[in-house]
Amino acid sequence: MSDTFKKTPSKDGAQPEREPGGLRKSLTNYGDNGFSLFLRKAFIKGAGYTDSALDRPVIGIVNTGSAYNPCHGNAPQLIEAVKRGVMLAGGLPMDFPTISIAESFSQPTSMYLRNLMSIDTEEMIRAQPMDAVVLIGGCDKTVPAQLMGAASANIPTIQLITGSMLTGAHRGERVGACTDCRRYWGRFRAEEIDETEIAAVNNQLVASVGTCSVMGTASTMACIAEALGMTVPGGASPPAVTSDRMRIAEMTGTQAVQMARDGLTIDKILTAEAFENAMRVLLAIGGSTNGIVHLTAIAGRMGYDVDLKALDRMGRETPVLVDLKPSGSHYMEDFHKAGGMATLLRELKPLLNLDTLTVTGRTLGEEIEAAGPAFEQDVVRPFDRPIFPQGGIAVLQGNLAPGGAIIKQSAANAKLMEHEGRAVVFENAADLAARIDADDLDVNADDILVLKNIGPKGAPGMPEAGYIPIPRKLATAGVKDMVRISDGRMSGTAFGTIVLHVTPESAVGGPLAYVQSGDRIRLSVAKREISLLVSDDELAARAARHPVTVPKAERGYRKLFFDTVTQADQGVDFDFLRATEHRGTTPRS
Ligand code: FES
User: Which family is it part of (predicted)?
Assistant: First the structure.
């Protein structure tokens, strides 16, 4: 008989002498732990395992492969490589599925499902026996959902990114999703190209499986995961279909076993200082505005609040150094060839907390040293030659957004960042769709487009509809950008002078709800101001005349979502999923 079934020795007949590990963890409750383990092993042996295999540290591997998710199209190869790494290090790999979310296959919007995926991830990590877990994610909401769930489960955790797609070419021009998707679609709307050409472009924008090839949300979260210390060094940048990506996967499996042996739980890595490093990187890469919402949610799971004003102060001393679209001109595969995150972190070193721990058990500073010396490249700029002199994201305040709003200043039009104009208001996404291209829409290039009811509760799920299209009659006249304001989000691949995440949102009665067409609005990015030039008395009178009805649902996940989702400044997480213990604020000002 294997020692597996011997009764666990105990002190005073009550407490086991050591924490159970491997298959002995998370036993199903039949009222007899010995029987629970006996039954568990009997069933898993049905798959052909030996006692020797079952006595090893168990490494769970979260499989988010799905036919609906081409951004994770390399999941089978990644899992094979992770398993190889786990077995080389003496562990037992066990892959299991969770929800997979792909941006363009998620109705009403992927953000609506992020928290559900985080619950799935947390509870399956808790429910099943594993000594460490490898999270395989890539598409925009998957990495945040996995880190949120794993942060709450708090076991040794390592993130494996699926990797970016390759770029394609259209008539000699290099193209990649999805900055170029938007650019070509804008040209099609402006009737600069015809249906034949837009169909040809459609074939070229996504040249392989993998995540969007620019510094969109997926690439942003990959860089953030590495900056947090949650990936092996170099884990952010290898494209999905490369041998480098497979090597990272094998290394990830090997490291997961070491983390299990060392008891290197996620709470030792996700500290306030690590979040500060991640925010520094978010600013320096010209990263997606979604990154701040996701970081806020992950930090909330660890008991930290994100101080948006401190983040803005940090932004004033952090230039954008990474020359990737949409802020710059390159793609993720170029960033990888330029050394990836090691090149950036080396440049940012004076601004980083170098003592933070990573999944390797070494500090971020030690990993930067281990990456070796800098070399000639043109993707990561030196401090004295930045893409943009300040961080990519600026935090705005004012009577239109008492809880704050943000703008991706590195992807905005410099001429519009100090602007006052007349509001042209759309009440919701349906109103926008119905009127934006109408010939009789009363709109000029100097106006400010305002879209309400696309916040966390408004749409629901805070869709990436903040990239309001330029009205067709202005687009065909050559207008490329206008100031646009909403309580929604914007894809990290988008660009323009676009104010997002206005908090509180209009659906819960934020001041945005009471903006009317013809009102004057002032945007000053230099002063970090977003102001509605309407008196408080007038706004109160409008609120009294047309009180807001906060959306509700009768049942199911939709009800849970409406009842518990928080605003953008809280990460749009469910209120009951945040850590119960408050540990502090990040970044420290
Ligand atoms: Fe999946 Fe862009 S759609 S990463």
Answer: Belongs to the IlvD/Edd family.
